[in-house]
Amino acid sequence: YGDVSSGAIWGDALFLTCGYFIIYGFVQAVLGKWNRVEQRAALAAVGISSTGLSICASWGICSAVGLSYGPMHSLIPCLLVGLGIDDMFVLVQSWDNLGDMPGVDLPEKVGQAMRHAGLGITVTSVTDVLVFLIGGTTVLPSLRSYSIFTGVGICFTYFLQITFFLAWFSIDQKRINDKRDGMFCWKRHPNMDLDKEKSILRRSFSKLGKILQHFPIKIAVLLSSLTLVAVSSWGFSNISVELNYVGFLPSDSQLFKWFSWDEELFPKEGELGHIYLGEIDLAQELSKLDNIIDQFEKKGDVIKSVNGWYPEFKKYVNTHFRSADNPIPYSPITEGNFNKLLTQFLFSPNGSRYQNNFKFDGDLKCGEPAPPILVSSIEFSHPKFETGPRGEHIEAMRWVKEKVAKENFPTTTFAMAQAYSRWEIDEVISYELLRNVLLALVMVTITTLLLLADFLTCFMVLLCLIMTLVDVLGLMYFWNMNIDIVAGTNIIISVGLCVDYSAHMAHSFLTKTGSGNERLQQTLTEMGPAVFNGGFSTLLAILMLVNSKSYVFISFFKIFFLMIVIGLFHGLVVLPTALSIICPEPYSHYTKILETKPEHTNGIIVPANGMHKSIDKK
Question: Would you give the distance in Å from CA 201 to the centre of its chain?
């Protein structure tokens, strides 16, 4: 089973490699322009290679400190490439937004671009790192290692983007200013006019901003987002928590077909379990055994049947060796007498089938007292539980364990079933998913509040993030998905991804002045293309996984597809619309800059507030 499931993951890693080449083509096409001078093929390669350096640094450091590497770690490059490219687009978009600045040298203009892009990149990177480090505190070893690997990789990605990539960007921009060829930098094109036309995507988002300025459109956007949340909330309330271990096998493998046929032709009516008792004087603990059996038999919704040795042993002893006034377990029995009766019972016609429920410190011989008991067990079975949001199987397992623990046997005693290995994972992932998501939301709130420095905007970013999570969890139900360890891991790590879209837009909105509609228009025009390109490039990276036969990759694709699409919807449409209505105050230093730089037009001063004041032309 392990060889087949792991082999499927490693085999389908080829799809991720194909996705990286698709990303490079997309980045090269979007980052520059379609002429010999302004193309940025080399810069795109440098940006993606910086992500490769981050991956090597992350794997090297984490492996050096002893963290394990598993098949799911092959998804880490996809995440880091997506986050790194997102930072690249924000930086280049901030540069393009500056336009022509005559008299300003290149280093100064690069500094101006970083002044606008730096905080946005920092906000998203810090929140991503904190989210993954929270995942590193989980009790699940695979998720802990995966989160720390990714968190360290994000740290290096951020550092290399603001140093390594920025340096190469400055060199590449100097090349463009000198009108040197994008592929053969020694060749110049002095007579070529640089393309000053805005990109198609920038014009498209400008038109989107004009559409969203209409009040009925704003109401429609907000109502549609609330409707989606309502529908998704219903789906979320019905999603089940269950690990389907067969799903980890490729659908075309022989082992998967065997499990499918076995379930179809020989369906199970329940799950078999045992209560195990260590080395103990059973003669003194019969009343506790009797109490457990009695509770099990009365709990029909949790226990289907009890087929342990003790009920038959009690009936055997009370029928043949005890009177009605002196039955066990209510009347005491000595250890020696118990051992003799146990031997007779285990060699009787009705009791011989229970010999395998005992492990003795010696050989059991007919006619002789039973040797000391090292381990004994009592068999029971659960009914077949239907999958659903109630988690009946988890509650049943908890009930059994609590009842056994409540009897307080003087030695190691526990209940175990083969299905408990899956049910315990379901129990843990339910708690860990809730814990990590709540902690991630708290850290995202604190980080965005400190870095954005605006309570109302921070609240709106958090609200968009919560709505995105609810939508994703609800749509998972309609996509026939369960919450298991793989889905839970992907949901936790995608929190940091989907907050990026809203955080970039929120920060850009706070740097704009004017009316709510004017700031909406400027934010979508200047930051919308970069956010869209970052999300779309990540979507391209995972698009090839749709052909995967590995459950890990299929789950990763579905959850990240939902998170990217819905996250972009909330970040690019819902959040700017809401911010244009509530209109939080812009940063004071941006307002002061505009107030100290009035425009002069035919003797009329046009300050930042839009009011006109006539002056003498002299």
Answer: 30
State pLDDT tens for residues 159-187.
998 899 899 989 888 888 888 887 887 88
pTM of the model: 0.76
Residues 6+ apart with CB under 8 A from 468: 498, 563, 566, 567, 570
Strand 373-383, strand 613-614: pairing: unpaired
- Exposure string of 428-451, with b = 16+ CB inside 10 Å and e = fewer, is bbeebbeebbebbbebbbebbbeb
Residues with Cβ within 8 Å of residue 82, at least 6 apart in sequence: 497, 534, 537, 538, 541
pLDDT digits (tens, 9 = 90+) for 421-452: 888 888 888 788 888 888 888 888 888 888 78
Lateral strand order in the sheet of 604-606: 599-601, 604-606, 613-614
Residue type, 63: S
- Compute the half-sphere exposure of residue 261: CA atoms within 13 Å on the CB side of its CA: 6
Tell me which amino acid residue 332 is: P
Show the tokens assigned to 130: 């904190």
The H or E element that residue 573 is part of is: none
- Classify strands 413-417 and 373-383 as parallel, antiparallel or unpaired: unpaired
Give 572's contacts (C-beta < 8 A, 6+ positions apart): 205, 208, 501, 505, 524, 528, 531, 532
As to burial, measured by CB atoms within 10 angstroms (0-12 exposed, 13-18 middle, 19+ buried), residue 421 is exposed
